[in-house]
């Protein structure tokens, strides 16, 4: 190969390499400029606009300490009508929902057998009374004969004993009359209380046994909630304390008051039953489930709504506005309760009057700029 051709090839190759290098340098420079411009755009501070509803103020309030309570609604007065004697049930016409009054005849048990037993007892008593009359006349006659010396004193004593035995038999027969009359009276089933029929457990024509349940009657004019509390929580509960309750499926708030507290804990669970009397039970039914909060005390303390407390860090904290920027401040939480119907919690670590971001705002990065925050620090 000729020398000039060789050197020409080398020069062309070097020129090509140099051109490619220059293009790479220009491309890298352009990418760097784009990256720097993007980073500069990210460094531009973003301002968040907040309204008055997005801020809550830490204030000293009367914090009402409450306990969650729940339980079934029960009638204070309820009763089962039971058969006191065995026999065929007759005349049962009331059904669930019917109103009854105390003393009202609800049904009867066939009384044929009990009427016969009553007559039998009365006749036995009459027979015993006749025996008493005979024994008394015999005793009177023997006493006269003893006075006249015709019979001995032993015969008189025997006659006296016979009279005493006859009188005892008569008293026993009269007691039998009372038992038979009571059984006859028990064939009539009456309402023990006024109220409504909740259950009809037997049908007319059925043969019922003694103590068989026939009807259940409940008085809905007085209702109460049977709430179960832990032993530790029950120590602060006293009669007269008030509670706010709601019934399952209804938004209506009910007023209740602690009527009484069971003196014994439930075996096994060691829970304590507390009975809350409903002040206006209109429209409620036995068996519904109620839940709510029982006020057991109160204190005046610095508090915030529970929703304003953030817990996405190891320690609870709040987001507050400082120099128109978001700042994070760790707080110490105390007892919980209610103030003006809002769930609140006692806090330490921030001064009174601090404006804290409401829970609906969500988590924000510390240093986020805030504008148009009403009353911001």
Your description of this structure?
By secondary structure, this protein is α+β, with helices and mostly antiparallel strands. The chain folds into 3 domains: 48-66 and 299-371, conserved putative lor/sdh protein from methanococcus maripaludis s2 fold (Beta Barrel); 69-73 and 220-296, Elongation Factor Tu (Ef-tu), domain 3 (Beta Barrel); 78-196, Helix hairpin bin (Helix Hairpins), CATH 1.10.287. 30% of the residues lie in helices and 38% in strands. The chain is built from 4 helices and 20 strands. The strands form 5 sheets. Strands 3-10-13-12-11-14 form a 6-stranded antiparallel beta barrel. A 4-stranded antiparallel β-sheet has the order 7-6-4-9, with no helix packed on it. The protein is elongated. The chain starts with a helix and ends in a 6-residue tail after the last strand. Belongs to the membrane fusion protein (MFP) (TC 8.A.1) family. Residues 111-138 form a coiled coil. Residues 79-209 form the Multidrug resistance protein MdtA-like barrel-sandwich hybrid domain.
List the helices and strands and how they pair.
Elements: H1 3-42, E1 47-49, E2 55-57, E3 59-82, E4 87-90, E5 99-100, E6 105-109, H2 112-148, H3 153-185, E7 188-190, E8 195-200, E9 207-208, E10 213-229, H4 231-234, E11 242-247, E12 253-265, E13 272-278, E14 289-305, E15 317-322, E16 325-330, E17 332-339, E18 342-348, E19 355-357, E20 369-371
Parallel strand pairs: 1-20
Antiparallel strand pairs: 2-19, 3-10, 3-14, 4-6, 4-9, 5-8, 6-7, 8-10, 10-13, 11-12, 11-14, 12-13, 14-18, 15-16, 17-18
Helix pairs in contact: 2-3
Domain CusB-like beta-barrel: 225-295
InterPro entries: Beta-barrel_RND_2, MdtA-like_BSH, RND_pump_MFP
Coiled coil: 111-138
């Amino acid at each position: 190969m000729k020398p000039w051709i060789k050197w020409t090839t080398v020069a062309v190759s070097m020129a090509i390499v140099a051109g490619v290098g220059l293009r790479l340098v220009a491309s890298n420079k352009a990418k760097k400029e784009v990256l720097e411009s993007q980073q500069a755009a990210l460094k531009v501070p973003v301002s968040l606009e907040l309204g008055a509803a997005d801020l809550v103020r830490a204030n000293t309030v009367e914090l009402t300490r409450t306990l969650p309570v729940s339980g079934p609604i029960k009638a204070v007065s309820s009763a089962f009508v039971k058969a006191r004697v065995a026999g065929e049930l007759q005349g049962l016409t009331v059904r669930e929902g019917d109103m009854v009054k105390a003393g009202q005849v609800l049904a009867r048990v066939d009384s044929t057998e009990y009427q016969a037993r009553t007559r039998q007892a009365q006749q036995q008593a009459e027979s015993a009374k006749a025996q008493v009359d005979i024994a008394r006349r015999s005793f009177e006659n023997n006493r006269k004969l003893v006075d006249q010396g015709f019979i001995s004193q032993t015969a008189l004593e025997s006659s006296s004993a016979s009279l005493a035995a006859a009188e005892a038999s008569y008293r026993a027969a009269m007691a039998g009359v009372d038992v038979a009359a009571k059984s006859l009276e028990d064939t009539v089933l009456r309402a023990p209380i006024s109220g409504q029929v909740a259950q009809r457990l037997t049908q007319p024509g059925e043969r019922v046994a003694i103590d068989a349940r026939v009807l259940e009657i409940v008085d809905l004019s007085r209702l109460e909630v049977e709430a179960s509390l832990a032993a530790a929580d029950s120590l602060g509960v006293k009669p007269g304390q008030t509670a706010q309750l709601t019934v399952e499926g209804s938004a209506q708030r009910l007023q209740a008051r602690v009527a009484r507290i069971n003196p014994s804990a439930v075996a096994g669970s060691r829970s304590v039953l507390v009975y809350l009397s409903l002040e206006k039970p209109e429209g409620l039914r036995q068996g519904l489930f109620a839940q709510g909060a029982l006020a057991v005390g109160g204190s005046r303390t610095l508090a915030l709504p529970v929703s304003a407390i953030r817990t996405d860090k190891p320690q609870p904290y709040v987001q507050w506005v400082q120099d128109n920027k978001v700042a994070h401040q760790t707080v110490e939480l105390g007892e919980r309760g209610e103030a003006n119907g809002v769930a609140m919690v006692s806090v330490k670590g921030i001064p009174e009057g601090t404006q804290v971001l409401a829970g609906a705002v969500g988590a924000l990065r510390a240093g986020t700029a805030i504008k148009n925050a009403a009353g911001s620090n």
